[in-house]
Amino acid sequence: MKAIVIRAPGDSDVLKLQEVEEPKIKEDEVLIKVEAAALNRSDIYEREGSYPSPEGVSPYPGLECSGTIESVGENVSRWKVGDKVCALLSGGGYAEKVAVPSGQLLPVPAGVSLKDAASFPEVACTVWSTILMRSRLSAGETLLIHEGSSGIGVFAIQIAKQFGATVLVTAGSEEKLAFCKDLGADVCINYKTEDFVTRIEEETGGREVNLGVFFAKRLTIQGATLRNRTLEEKAVIVKEVEKNVWPVIVEGKVKPVVCKHFPLVEAAEAHRHMESSKHVGKILLLP
């Protein structure tokens, strides 16, 4: 099969399409023939050498994909050959085929094309696990999203509004802010033309972070990544996403936002497009 190989840490030109060995699945994995893979900012960090893949994970980049199941391991019961799925990956999406633990698979939501379904797994699992599972965003609370027009941003705006939050976003152009507004953002701030800190103070009535309150109320500041979590943790997140997020996608209340498609051989150009920050939503690679 063909896959994008990072020949050495560096700029986008280090990405090359090469013939590589087809992945072998384990007893609890499936093999997906990839329809589309989505770019994430962390792919750029991996290419540059600052975000290496975990031990034992595919050396090829790509943290989410969609496609058709080609074979299943002997311990896999829910999924079968021919199923249309999308998947949360630890790596390997920039390829014609990828092996995936069965607990990291999601059915393609009704009403979403197989191709566009690749735009959902990573952002859905990231947003749900951080904003809802860990931080327990509730109706009436305020959520600030920096770079609201990014892949994470456009999804977070939509899902936060579904849960009754007031959403503030920042972005670097009026066109991006208009797009965020159309998605449901309540307050849209151009960080290039105004002081977003001052604007947020105005919009929230001066509610700033007070470290004294943090101590008194035993509050926490949280940070999280998905890639290095255990298979068990990822399976729990994926299950939660299917239960809580997939229904609003099926109802059309949360939609895929895809900026541009690139053939897999043009992965370097796709990275340059992401690095230009001109995109709104997700960028997809098509094997």
Automatic annotation (TrEMBL):
UniProt cross-references to Pfam families, sorted A to Z: ADH_N, ADH_zinc_N, ADH_zinc_N_2
Gene Ontology MF term list: NADPH binding; oxidoreductase activity, acting on NAD(P)H
InterPro entries for the chain: ADH-like_C (IPR013149), ADH-like_N (IPR013154), ER (IPR020843), GroES-like_sf (IPR011032), NAD(P)-bd_dom_sf (IPR036291), Quinone_OxRdtase_PIG3 (IPR014189)
Lineage top rank: taxon: Eukaryota
Enoyl reductase (ER) domain sequence ranges: 10-285
Annotated keywords: NADP, Oxidoreductase
PANTHER family reported in the protein's UniProt record: OS02G0805600 PROTEIN, QUINONE OXIDOREDUCTASE PIG3-RELATED
Protein name: Enoyl reductase (ER) domain-containing protein
